[in-house]
Amino acid sequence: MWRLREKHDCSLATGSISMLPKLHPNAPRYRKYLREMRKLTLVSPINPKTLYVFKSSASITKERRRHIKYYKHTIHPYSVISMVREIGMSIIWFIYFTVHAFQLAFYEKHMSSNLVQYAHLISSFFHSLHIVSIFFTGCHDKKERTIILGLKPIALIYMRTYFAFDLLLLIPTQEVFRNKYFNWLAYILHLAACPRIITMGEYFRHITLFLELGDMIHELLCLIIGGFILIHWWAVLLFGIPKFQQTSKTTEKISWTTEGNILNRTVASQYIQSFHKASALFFCTSTGMWNSDRPTEWLTCALIIVTGTLYLNYITAIILQLAMSYKISESMYDKLAYQLFQYTKAKKLPQRLIVRLELYYETRFREKFFRESRILATLSEHLRYEIIYYTCSQFIQSTWFFEDLPKGVVGHVIASLTTSILITNEVIHYEDDTETPKLYFIASGSVGLYSSSGVELTHIEDGDYFGEHSILCRISDFRVSETTRNTRVVAAEITELFVLDMKDFVKYIANFPLAMNRIMQVAESRDNFNVRELEKRNQDMGIDLMTALRPDEFLETGRLRLVSAQRRYGVHQIRNFCDSFTTG
After folding, report:
1. Coil, helix or strand at residue 500
2. Structural domain count, the chain
3. Lesser CB count within 10 Å: N end or C end of the chain?
4. What pLDDT is stored for residue 562 in this prediction?
């Protein structure tokens, strides 16, 4: 059924990789620059998150076509520009939340005000760009598993979520709140945008993906960064509250800053002492080197202890959960990988085949081992159908094959599907097989259709299917040409297939005339296309051969010495051409 091809050399004219219309060679330079900028707004595999959503180059190409055709003024959420913006904003937000909290208590007017103003100006500039770009950047609806690119839905989603918080970051504190008693209110309004910390963690995933860090390491880093920000904010409050009370002269009780003579130290020493005391309270190790008699500081210390206890319990639960799930799935996968290593070693397989086996298992299990059949076997029939239907829902929406079938029949068909993974350059013999024919649906990836003479006819991509000709010839009087009967399918990339046996096809689909008529019409049109395309390619091939030949390539017998041409077009086509040339 399956055979390995040395290499898939695509000979079809695919056009521009970016799917953008090509410019004239003499086009103005600014148009070339605009075209390059437009490429940066399209979905790109350079974005490390792209492969989590689009599993194949065919699905990326399809998404680019949809983007270019219907949403010309939108930036794709998985584009290069979106990636750069998210990485930059994750860094800016981290600096913003730490610096503004620091200014809340430790900034004095005699310090370099120009530096602070420049920092505010640069920060506000990037935040303004971020707000504007969000209105033109699509978003990923993970519940519906769709990419939203319409400008109106994007604006509505942004207005309902983070728009108000982002506006708080643009408040000019030095201009609006000049009174020192209201500076607290200004900075607190800035810190009210703390929900963006969650977004900062999501954007931070780009950096960890570039560093090739796993999900577990990313979660741990986010927890560490979140803990640092919490302790930093509590350190600011520990120092800022007594400083504010001393300025307003609301109490005469001794503060921890007075007992330790903290106010007369440098800003760096003040922050270090405050951070030390906040850390000791946060991790419940001590109350610090100096105590206080003020109720407001008691309350602050109590809140720090409660927050630290909740944080420690949360991070402990998360670490245990991650470690257990990671250890179980990873250890089972490692055992499987070790068995594969011993197997290849015992069989003395070549390195090329070992690499392909490892690639197959990585694609099949994604470094997480599980037995899907055992899991599904423990579920009820209804729940099993729901899981399978949800898993295949995106595939069902992308193909027209199930449009003429009732939902109940679609459920039975989906439940009858089996999965199969093709590594790049694997060949499927399906049309003239002596085995029971099968119908193959492409869940992700793409394949190339070849004639028996080695001519590539077309590509079949996500949401499409093949193998219907052999089934129709078995169950009806449908006839196909010799070209289609002898075709082969070669995996152009790692491809995931859903396979439907002929008996299930007959059981669930053959009894619906509307669906069968449409399948037969498509099969007939594909057959005609294959015949026309093969004739066209053979004609083009003959012209290319005659152009490439030189007078000294003719032998005395009238045969052609075409070693280089054989490598390009295949031995079979060259022999046919030579025979026709000598007989003519």
Report:
1. strand
2. 4
3. C
4. 36
- Measured distance CA(297)–CA(325) in Å, rounded: 42
One-letter amino acid identity for 464? D
* pLDDT in the model for residue 122: 80
The whole domain housing 328 covers 216-349
Region 77-100 average pLDDT? 90
Tell me which residue has tokens 């049109």.
525
SS3 157: helix
Query: Cα 431 to the chain's mean position, in Å?
Result: 35
Nearest-angstrom CA–CA distance, 415 and 404: 18
Q: Exposed (0-12), middle (13-18) or buried (19+): which is 483, by Cβ within 10 Å?
A: buried
Q: Give the up-direction half-sphere exposure of residue 139: CA atoms within 13 A in the CB hemisphere.
A: 17
Residue 480 within a domain: yes
CA distance 46 to 52: 12
**Better pLDDT: 83 or 95:** 83
> Which contacts (CB < 8 Å, 24+ apart) does range 187-191 have?
187/100, 187/101, 187/103, 187/104, 188/104, 190/96, 190/100, 191/97, 191/100, 191/101, 191/104, 191/233
Distance CA 59, CA 36 (A): 21
Left, alpha or beta for 463 (phi > 0: left; psi -120 to 50: alpha)?
Answer: left
> What integer pLDDT is reported at residue 252 of this predicted model?
57
Two tokens, residue 311: 């944080």
Q: How far is CA 349 from CA 114, 147, 362, 426, 550, in A?
A: 69, 43, 18, 18, 44
Structure tokens at 344: 């290849």
Instruction: Report whether 137 contacts 82 (CB < 8 A).
Output: yes
Contacts of 504 (CB under 8 A, 6+ apart): 413, 416
Domain contains 288: yes
Residue 311: inside a domain? yes
Distance CA 54, CA 31 (A): 29
Burial 222-260 (b: 16+ CB within 10 A, else e): bbebbbebbbbbbbbbbbbbbbbbeeeeeeeeebbbbeb
Q: What is the pTM of this model?
A: 0.68
* Dihedral angle sign, alpha carbons of residues 246, 251, 252, 253: negative
Residues 49, 188: one domain?
A: yes
Range list of β-strands (E), 426-513: 426-429, 438-444, 447-450, 456-460, 465-466, 488-491, 495-501
Same domain, 74 and 196: yes
Calculate the alpha carbon distances from 555 to 175, 559, 566, 576 in Å.
Answer: 91, 6, 16, 17
